[in-house]
Design brief:
With about 350 residues, this protein is of the alpha/beta class. It folds into two domains: about 5-200, HUPs (Rossmann fold, 3-Layer(aba) Sandwich), CATH 3.40.50.620; about 215-340, Tyrosyl-Transfer RNA Synthetase. It has 16 helices and eight strands. It has a six-stranded mixed beta sheet, sandwiched between helices.
């Protein structure tokens, strides 16, 4: 029998484990994850996609919330709502290819009621301007981002109100969404409303990331095409980008190792094959991430051999997405064009 508490908690922060246990014992509940339809999907999304499946498999009714108005507030895709909604349909395709059992809901649907806006007002009454500023990082923005655009002050309250309006029991997101989820829990206590369990997955750093950087600032982003591998990249593109990736002979601040730990091992069969020339010892199969990490630190693995092997593994993982979207060239081209505005 699958231990769903262990599966959901693996490679994630859970706030709190006891609350999650209670939900699982009662058969699950309503879970959600929100995405701004704002551009092309990169491999960092694979981390949360796996957690989405684990949550759905545990009996939760999973909603993928496509936050179109949030993307507008956050200046995504030139603020063109038609393109934002096209990108929403693109994301639906992505999650369908991944085989994730879920339903889709757009912010423009949820917001179409006075009840929703009453919740927004009550959320704003239950928090402070300073607390709202601290939550601005959920948008990938600095705390002072709203100084020149008042709508951005609304964003944290919208995200918290979304959770209450959907009557959510479990909120899933990357670690960059932690501020919003903690704000929801704080507001819930003040108003006597339901507090959602929060589950946060690691952020995959950009391939060029190195040194002691804030994980949110260092995360893989579509705005850095050379530091990002998308689900549409072909084998040559993946190899080229991986060749330039930062990969010290240590586990600390190593984006290549983080890809192995959070994507390659979880999506594989529990092993990782390092491919190399016979004169350097030939292929080696690792049955745990710790063994590979220690081998790199012990200089038993050359960084370039590691990067080549990770590139090959990633190619196999993203191939189903690449093949599916090969028939939707115009959709991808329109989204890529809008991202560059």
């Amino acid at each position: 029998m699958i231990d769903h508490l262990q599966a959901i908690s693996r490679d994630a922060e859970v706030v709190t484990s006891e609350e999650l246990r209670t939900l699982l014992e009662s058969g699950g509940g309503r879970a959600y994850i929100g995405f701004e339809p704002s551009g092309i999907v990169h491999i960092g999304w694979l981390v949360c996609m796996r957690k989405m499946r684990e949550i759905a498999d545990a009996g939760f009714d999973l909603t993928v919330y496509l936050a179109d108005w949030h993307a507008f507030v956050n200046d995504k895709l030139g603020g063109d709502m038609d393109t934002i909604r096209l990108c929403g349909r693109y994301l639906e395709d992505v999650f369908d290819v991944a085989g994730i059992p879920c339903r889709y809901l757009y912010a423009s649907e949820l917001m179409d009621s006075m009840e929703y806006w009453e919740r927004v007002m009550r959320v704003m009454k239950a928090t402070t301007l300073a607390r709202t500023r601290r939550a601005m990082t959920i948008m990938g923005r600095r705390e002072d981002a709203a100084d020149s655009d008042m709508s951005k002050f609304l964003y944290p309250a919208l995200q918290v109100a979304d959770i209450f309006q959907m009557d959510i029991d479990l909120a899933l997101g990357g670690m960059d969404q932690r501020h919003a989820h903690m704000l929801q829990r704080d507001v819930a206590e003040r108003l006597g409303w339901k507090k959602a369990v929060a589950v946060h997955t690691p952020l995959i750093p950009a391939l060029s990331a190195g040194g002691r950087m804030d994980p949110v600032e260092a995360k893989m982003s579509k705005s850095d095409p050379n530091g990002t591998i998308t689900i549409h990249d072909g084998p040559d593109d993946i190899r080229r980008k991986m060749k330039r990736a930062y990969c010290p002979e240590t586990a600390e601040d190593n984006p290549v190792l983080e890809i192995v730990e959070h994507i390659v091992f979880p999506y594989g069969d529990g092993t990782f094959t390092l491919t190399r020339d016979e004169k350097w010892g030939g292929d080696v199969e690792y049955s745990s991430f710790a063994d590979l990490r220690d081998a790199l630190a012990g200089k038993k693995v050359h960084p370039q051999d590691l990067k080549d092997s990770v590139a090959a593994a990633l190619d196999g993982i993203i191939r189903p997405f690449r093949e599916h979207f090969a028939t939707k060239v115009q959709m991808i081209a329109r989204i890529r064009s809008a991202v560059g505005r």
